[in-house]
Design brief:
Chain B: It comes from Parazoarcus communis SWub3 = DSM 12120. The structure holds two protein chains of two kinds. Chain A is mainly alpha-helical. Chain A is built from 20 helices and two strands. Chain A has helices at residues 12-30, 35-57, 74-100, 106-123, 128-146, 153-184, 189-197, 203-221, 229-236, 239-245, 248-264, 269-292, 297-316, 328-356, 372-375, 377-391, 397-411, 415-441, 454-472, 475-488; strands at 63-65, 70-72. By secondary structure, chain B is mainly alpha-helical. Helix content of chain B is 74%, strand content 3%. The longest helix of chain B is centred in the last third of the chain and has 32 residues, at 324-355. Chain B is globular and about 70 Å long. Classes of the chains: A mainly alpha, B mainly alpha. Chains A and B meet through α17, α18 and α20 of A and α6, α7 and α8 of B.
Chain lengths: 489, 493
């Protein structure tokens, strides 16, 4: 038998993170006394170093390795960088929160690193099995993270719920993959695309499989009708973990959608676009309406996240119009820009919840934001930036995210979709405005000074400024998204 | 012509100045915040003066143009320029900002820096609306200007402020998001341009024109506000602090009307011709019906708010008769209304600061304790009623003349405003100012101080000056209005 040594170079970052995961595990086992600090430091170092490795190995070329199961391209590199970035910030925000509750165990950081690795594998997979392995790696780590605060009944319940539903979704996805394999005879994305293009695939089996693939993707994105877990898990998990769930995995799920649907099944875009259309509209409507009724800010942000992911899908489904692929790049890059913008806003929103929490107190109720302008005008302004940005009001990044997606939808001729999205945005604006109202127009209930470490304050301030600055100058991030996609197509 | 970017200065001096004011922080530094805000407002006004002195009357082209790419990915440009239609509003806006900062000087004692900053930032954003020549840039300023006013109403407003602030925000947001879809459609149709001037030349079929016209009608109609989407305005006015009401009436309402001239008429000439009767009908309803509604108000601010809606009905009426006299009359009316309604709200603010009531029934015989104030209030009330020799007369008279040329019955209905307007304004004046002294609070009222005297005096000069000699205003707009009408007369089909 002929054994070929694969080219490890394109996967250097993944290998590095995998090795570091083992290093962190061993180091924190042997250095018990400083395990917590060490785990945190090593994790941040891992993320930063991985970012450097990704930047240095980035060459703008598309390269394959591990028998074409692994792809290295610019889109993957860009998303990986965003994933490191959001994980690093999420861990930074969460650190004092975890320490206050005595759950900043080294395992927490180990799971975060493993989860990062899972997401990296998802982003760079060129094969359904690789995709699945990455997904499971991410999901298993996340299940454990959600239930990490094991003394809390709610956290355990959320973990259980997430696990059961997540396992079901993985099953659906796997089933869909097997159908696609049955129809096309391959699991490699380009091979699938080729088989569909040659019309050698059994189309009814393929479509059958497609439904399950879309279901799996929808679950991971947390969109209607696979959204049930989102509010419960967001609320049940400790805020530091919610922060993680609400950010980087959205990027990984976006990559999953792009790889499976666009890389693999672009030829039958008409089919999955129709499915996504229902999903997107239902998510935008349900997310925005349900968010109004919430009194818990984490639940409200969960429903708002559902509607945001629906909005992002609008970009994905506007790529092909009656066989015309002219708009594809524009539409997909607008969806990517939306996903990245959402992650930046989401980080800041949960960061604010952490900022207001302290030992023995969870700032989970919306009312906990009452009168924030009196307690801290600057952080009230940061939260206001986030809320207006999420509502899509200029000059904030959320406006340009909405603009680019709507632009793609209008260009594709779906005026009614744009109208629905717009009307629901007005309804959505109500609950964002309510937060601003509570912070600025009401008197504070809780006048305890905000206790948060300097690093959290500084980073959160930077996060808020970034939301405004990117809204003033969105060009760079937008063209990065477009360029990364273009170079990878 | 010099290369100094006056329009950018007009936009960014107040915004950056506002951020500096914000940086003065807590109320311990309130005197500094006030002084700095006044300085910024004055500088912000001074930089707009060259826009008038350097304005070329002979051309209808955009002047003081600045263009540089902003978001090249969507071909969005930072494209500014003013013509005879918009230049006066930039100056008016900067001017009103000074008065508003002055009006909040003593009254606002809490969160002074935030108050002043909100007004300055809003002023800059509104200058951006009037000078933007790029669709997205216009939209961005249009939407962003909601934020400061939302906060102003919500933080410093009256008892029902939360409802009013949210209603105001959502109404406008709904209209403007429909406009966004229309802008994106135009972007697509024009082959990837957001330039408003390109859109003026863009051929469009009648059906898309109609749809876009309705999108714009909702967006700008809410902002004007036109009947039947006017209900947010009385709420917003009643709850807003005096300064907020002044800016809303003097500038905020002009944004929608300006949108009609910049977008609806030149981009959609055929739909505008076709649907002019609809808009004229809505305008007449606003003029007549809302006039009667104003008559029965018990709250002074509400009364002036309804009177604003009626006056703005005159403006949209003037626009859609599509003749030069009508449009120029409407523009004059807009500027005059900026002065007059601003002054009316300031007068009511003066009373409210002393009595903490806006109910007409709580007053009576104010002239005995506040003679100077009564004189000013008299002048502004007369202007609001459209008395000749005040600015209120000029615009109304021009629009009515234009209506006579257009259709006698429209002119007849429009002219009823001269009677109804006089009735509600002067009746309110009579009940508040004249008669026996109503109660001991009124008897103890102090007359206006030097600061209030200065603010009202400046406005009185503007109102009289414009009423006696409106030529400096009309000469600026003349070339642009002629060109606009020539453009509207040419079908795009």
């Amino acid at each position: 038998m002929n054994f070929v040594v694969p080219d490890f170079y394109p996967a250097a970052a993944e290998i590095f993170v995998a090795v570091m995961a083992l290093v962190i595990m061993l180091a924190t086992t042997f250095a018990r006394r400083i395990a917590r600090t060490l785990g945190y430091a090593l994790t941040q170092i891992t993320l930063i170093a991985a970012a450097f490795i990704t930047i240095f190995t980035m060459d703008g070329q598309v390269s394959y390795t591990f028998s074409n199961m692994f792809i290295s391209d610019l889109m993957g590199d860009f998303l990986k960088l965003m994933i490191y970035f959001s994980m690093a910030i999420a861990l930074l925000y969460g650190r004092s929160y975890l320490a206050d509750r005595n759950i900043d165990k080294p395992e927490y950081y180990l799971l975060s690193v493993l989860m990062t690795l899972g997401m990296m594998v998802m982003v760079t997979s060129n094969h359904m099995l690789t995709m699945y392995i990455g997904l499971e790696m991410m999901s298993l780590a996340l299940y454990a993270l959600v239930a990490f605060d094991r003394d809390s009944a709610r956290s355990t319940e959320a973990g259980m719920k997430y696990f059961v539903l997540g396992a079901l979704a993985s099953g659906l996805l796997l089933y869909g993959m097997s159908m696609v394999y049955g129809a096309t005879g391959t699991l490699e994305f380009s091979g699938v695309a080729q088989a569909v293009y040659n019309q050698s695939a059994n189309s009814s089996v393929l479509l059958f499989g497609l439904v399950f693939l879309v279901a799996g993707i929808c679950f991971k994105l947390g969109v209607v009708p696979f959204h049930m877990w989102v509010p419960d898990v967001y609320q049940g998990a400790s805020t530091a973990v919610t922060l993680i769930i609400a950010t980087a995995p959205k990027l990984a799920a976006f990559a999953m959608a792009v790889r499976l649907l666009i890389w693999g099944l672009f030829e039958i875009a008409d089919q999955w676009q129709t499915m996504l259309m229902f999903v997107a509209v239902a998510s935008i409507i349900l997310g925005n309406l349900a968010a109004i009724a919430q009194s818990n800010i984490k639940r409200m942000l969960a429903y708002s996240g559902i509607s945001h992911m629906g909005f992002m899908l609008l970009g994905l489904l506007a790529g092909v119009v009656e066989g015309d692929r002219h708009f594809a790049l524009n539409a997909y890059s607008s969806a990517m820009f939306y996903a990245v913008s959402y992650v930046i806003m989401s980080l800041a929103s949960f960061g604010m919840v952490i900022l207001l929490s302290r030992a023995g107190f969870e700032a989970e109720r919306i009312d906990d934001f009452k009168g924030l302008n009196k307690r801290s005008p600057w952080f009230a302004a940061v939260m206001m930036f986030v809320m207006f940005s999420m509502a899509g009001i200029p000059f904030f990044i959320g406006f340009f995210a909405k603009l680019s997606v709507l632009q793609a939808v209008v260009a594709a001729g779906y005026f009614w979709l744009a109208a629905v999205a717009v009307v629901m945005s007005v309804i959505g604006a109500y609950y964002y405005l309510r937060i601003v109202k509570i912070m600025y127009f009401d008197e504070p209930e809780d006048t305890t000074p905000i206790q948060a470490p300097a690093e959290l304050r500084v980073m959160l301030s930077a996060n808020g400024i970034a939301i405004a600055a990117l809204g003033l100058a969105p060009q760079m991030l937008m063209s990065l998204c477009a360029y990364a996609l273009l170079a990878s197509l | 012509m010099t290369d100094i970017p006056y329009l950018s200065l007009a936009i960014w001096v107040p915004i950056i100045g506002g951020l500096l004011v914000l940086a003065t922080g807590s109320d311990r530094n309130a005197p500094m915040a006030r002084a700095l805000a006044l300085l910024v407002a004055i500088v912000g006004f001074v930089v707009t003066i060259p826009l008038y002195t350097g304005f070329d009357l002979s051309t209808s082209a955009m002047q003081f143009v600045e263009i540089s790419p902003w978001v090249p990915r969507f071909n969005i440009n930072y494209h500014l320029g003013v013509d005879g239609i918009s230049v006066l509003f930039v100056i008016l806006n900067a001017f009103i900002t000074i008065l508003v900062v002055g009006a909040g000087w003593q009254v606002i004692e809490e969160k002074v820096a935030q108050y002043m900053a909100a007004f300055l930032i809003m002023s800059g954003l509104m200058n951006g609306i009037f000078s933007a020549l790029d669709g997205v840039l216009f939209y961005v300023f249009f939407e962003a200007s909601l934020i400061p006013l939302y906060l102003i109403i919500g933080i410093w407003g009256g008892p029902n402020r939360v409802y009013a602030a949210i209603k105001f925000f959502l109404y406008t947001l709904f209209g403007s998001l429909l406009m966004l879809i229309a802008l994106l459609y135009l972007f697509m149709e024009s082959g990837g341009s957001f330039s408003i001037l390109d859109w003026h030349q863009l051929p469009l079929g009648i059906e898309p024109q109609m749809l876009i016209f309705f999108a714009f009608l909702i967006a700008f109609g809410v902002k004007v506000p036109m009947w039947p989407v006017h209900t947010w305005l009385p709420d917003a006015h009643v709850e807003a602090p005096t300064g907020g009401s002044v800016v809303l009436a003097a500038i905020g309402l002009k944004l929608g009307a300006y949108g009609f001239l910049r977008f609806s008429l030149p981009i959609l000439p055929d739909a505008a011709q076709e649907l002019a009767p609809l808009v004229i009908t809505l305008s007449l309803i606003a003029v007549v019906y809302i006039g009667f509604v104003a008559l029965v108000q018990a709250d002074m601010k509400k009364l002036v708010a309804y009177s604003s809606i009626a006056h703005m009905g005159f403006v949209t009426l003037g626009f859609f008769m599509l003749n030069p006299l009508g449009i120029e009359g409407a523009l004059v009316q807009m500027i005059s209304h900026g002065f007059v309604s601003g002054a009316m709200f300031l007068c009511i603010g003066v009373l409210y600061d002393r009595m903490h009531s806006r109910q007409i029934a709580d007053y009576g015989g104010v002239v005995h304790s506040m003679p100077k104030f009564a004189a000013f209030f008299m002048l502004f009330s007369m202007a609001n009623a459209g008395l000749p020799a005040t600015s209120g007369f000029v615009g109304e008279f021009m629009v009515i003349l234009a209506a006579v040329q257009y259709n006698f019955w429209i002119a007849f209905l429009a002219a009823t405003t001269l009677i109804v307007g006089a009735a509600y304004t002067l009746w309110m004046y009579k009940r508040v100012i004249f008669g026996a002294v109503a109660n001991k609070h009124v008897a103890e009222l102090e007359d206006i101080n030097a600061r209030e005297f200065a603010i009202l005096g400046i406005l009185a000069l503007c109102v009289l000056g414009m009423g006696l000699y409106p030529f400096p205003f009309t000469e600026v707009m003349h070339a642009s209005v002629e060109e606009l009408l020539r453009h509207v007369a040419v079908s795009k089909l």
